Amino acid sequence: MPLIEFKKEGLYVPAADVYIDPWRRVRKALITHGHSDHARWGHQQYICSHHSKPIIKHRLGDINVHGVAYGEELSVNGVKFTFFPAGHIVGSAQIRVEHQGEVWVVSGDYKTEDDGISGTFSPIKCHTFITECTFGLPIYTWVPQQQVFDKINHWWSTNQANGVTSILMGYSLGKAQRLLAGIDASIGPIYTHGAVEQMNAVIKTAGIPLPPTKYLNKEVTEKELAGSLVITPQGATRSTWMKRFGQVSLANASGWMQLRGARRRGGADRGFVLSDHADWQGLNDAITATGAETVYATHGYTNVFKQWLDSRGLDARVVQTKFEGELSEENSVESSQSDKLPSDE
């Protein structure tokens, strides 16, 4: 019997009778991070990292959730579980599973570049590694994030000089906070959509510092917004929420901006290549560092990535899951309605 089985409910550890990131209701669920394709409503008990706990409670409501520290060992029926930083978003974790000398690691979603707020990705030695491959093609190669933030700062400064409002799109959980942590907040005032503002407040309670922002409510005037930066979920730009602005420049921060034409599909006139997932090199480096002989590829370019890993002498397999990775704008689970304040519309 394998240490982890792939069942209709999700990733199952039979020796402990627990699931990892299950997509159907179960008794006990270990959660890698707070995005809605990994942390779903309806489980009897949730276990996650300490920093994920307030995020998951905010998103799912009155649930039974227990937080553990990175590196803290949790034993369930003799199976040892340990959470390690995944670097994906605040609170994200890889989960190490050990039983009778066998070690598997479930990566969840991860990135190998340290963004300063999400924890530093830590490769973990294991026999079997379950990896995402959202951007598992050689065309996806990220430049150092500071170069991206330099471009964002220049775009905002130029717009400010011309009295144009800069609207920057990013998921309310993860991308928005990374943008706020990386931009030059001294350029001017920063406003946020209600979904972002609420999530910022939750993340600050977890001890993560973010620059001051202003909630963009109905009382904020077009004149006040001129030259400012607005951080918003992608879906909000297709709603009546956009009617309050004067002249704007709309930008999208996403790994999909690497693709020609993706900028147009997002409705943006600028695109910044910034992903909270590992690029091609990051995926390969992470897998090599684990020393795993068996690798399961989930959500992304799974078949192509499997073939590549096979060519490197690994035992690579594709497993179908309900995880979605960094979705395109058309299918985003991080809609503008998910955490909005009552007066957003």
CATH class annotation of the largest domain:
Alpha Beta
Shape estimate:
globular
Reading the helices and strands in chain order gives EEEEEHEEEEEEHEHEHEHEEHEHEHE
Work out the count of structural domains.
2
Q: What do we call the CATH topology of the largest domain?
A: Metallo-beta-lactamase, Chain A
For the biggest sheet, the summary is: 7 strands, mixed
Q: Report the strand count.
A: 19
CATH architecture type of the largest domain: 4-Layer Sandwich
Radius of gyration: 20 Å
- Average predicted confidence as pLDDT: 92
Q: How many distinct helices?
A: 8
Q: CATH homologous superfamily of the largest domain? A: Ribonuclease Z/Hydroxyacylglutathione hydrolase-like
Low-confidence stretches: 328-345
- Through-space gap between termini: 53 Å
- Based on secondary structure, the structural category is alpha/beta
**Approximately what portion of the residues adopt beta-strand conformation?**
15-25%
Q: Name the helicity range.
A: 10-25%
Strand order of the largest sheet: 7-8-9-10-11-18-19
